[in-house]
Amino acid sequence: METWRVVAAVIIGPAVSLVGVAMASNFRGVTEWHVRRSMSAASVLQRVPPWRWLPDVPHGERLARFILLERVMGAAFAVAGVMILVTVCYSALTGQPMQTAK
């Protein structure tokens, strides 16, 4: 088994899990902070909906939708980090090499 893949997975797995948990739980307002920063960075772009009949929602409602979306993405990151760790542990215990996508 290639050592660098195991070391990388052992480092990346918990890092992805911690970032995902922080985003999903809004730990110390990290999700809201990130969404506010992203919206302010993108505020130079004019918001034109692809369909004219879409209602122009207020800023607070858009902020709440993006926070919810980012929290869902955080949960997915947390699950992905745990799956990375499970895969590494399984590969280390069985001695089989980690599967790669080709």
Automatic annotation (TrEMBL):
Sorted UniProt keywords: Membrane, Transmembrane, Transmembrane helix
Transmembrane segments: 6-27, 72-93
Protein name stated in the entry: SdpI family protein
